[in-house]
Amino acid sequence: MSEEQIKSLEADFDARIARDEKIEPKDWMPEKYRKTHIRQISQHAHSEIVGMLPEGNWITRAPSLRRKVALLAKVQDEAGHGLYLYSACETLGVSRDELYEQLHSGKAKYSSIFNYPTLTWADMGAIGWLVDGAAIINQVPLCSTSFGPYARAMVRVCKEESFHQRQGFEIMYKLCNGTPEQKEMAQDALNRWWWPSLMMLGPTDAESVHTEQSMKWKLKRKTNDELRQQFIDQTVPQADILGLKIPDTDLEWNEETGHYDFGEIQWDEFWQVVKGHGPCNKERLNARKDAWEKGAWVRDAAMAYAEKQSNKKIEKVV
Ligand code: FAQ
To answer: Which of 72, 210, 269, 317 is most solvent-facing, going by the fewest CB within 10 Å?
Structure first.
């Protein structure tokens, strides 16, 4: 293709983005658009399936049958989110095997938040309330992202995430209205999950390498800092309802800006976790690799069955 032809295709593509049209898998797209979508959507998919692990840790220890059923359903939803997202990613011409290989080799990232341990039952409340809460704030704008399959997957994901957030808040609410020990457990979970939840929304806008281009392509509709501020403004009043204290002595309502001011985030900790040195990075990756290896016989059996079925069809035709 000549340079002129590419320029004309790029101009058409930019005009479609400007008109808020959805880009579909078979449409022409710049190679960088395709690659950056594979990066973000696959990291999102990996986050969902790695995100099952910290909560999976508590399924057998949920304090009642009702809690166990709800947690089991939530973790299954996360597997479903991973599947929609991997499928959306595959429409960009990358195979599921390649994506898994990138996760298992450490080449692809997944969300920093899932490298922290879940020490008590209150952590199930804190994850639903804070982690799903932050995920919704990040993902609602993604429902109008420019790539059709990603945008459509996000609509369903967001509906389920908001249910997850409510079940987490309800766990916290029960603990906060229980015994003093239960309330202390809820406060301890908030203390441990607050700062990682703020980090989860990504580095500051000044440090973010992809935001500028992703905003132009309408892949991202809000910057990391905008989302973080929105999360803080929304969550502080919820902590007040619970009677919990946000572990930030600099947190203060600012009349002038109409937002909460907040303390400094420990970005060194964030980058350490992203680089693989968080408290549970090794454990999480080993669990995923182990599941892949132990599941080999299922994949082999499914392939053998599919082949047998297609041979039968060929025999019938012949
Ligand atoms: N962890 O230039 P930016 C969930 C990386 S799903 C690790 O700002 P971008 C559901 C970033 O990849 C949670 N790495 O990047 C659930 C890049 O490195 P790269 C996941 C991070 O893409 C709830 C570098 O830093 N959600 O929670 C993180 O423009 C409960 C520079 O960063 C999504 O994936 C991080 N936190 O913005 C499940 C949503 N942040 O790739 C179970 C979709 C940044 O060049 C239980 N993704 N990095 O090597 C996004 O919205 C964006 O990708 C951001 C990052 C906002 C995460």
So the answer is: 317
Distance 52 CA to ligand 1 centre (A): 16
Of ligand 1's listed atoms, the one at least distance from the Cα of 48 is: 38
pLDDT of residue 74: 98
Tens of pLDDT, residue by residue over 94-123, are: 999 999 999 999 999 999 999 999 999 999
Residues sharing a CB contact under 8 Å with residue 125, sequence separation 6 or more, in sequence order = 168, 169, 170, 171, 172, 175, 186, 189
Instruction: Find the 181 Cα to ligand 1 centroid distance in Å.
Output: 35
pLDDT band at 317 (very low <50, low <70, confident <90, very high): confident
Q: What is the pTM of this model?
A: 0.95
Atom of ligand 1 nearest to the CA of 211: 29
Contact 177, 98 (CB under 8 A): no
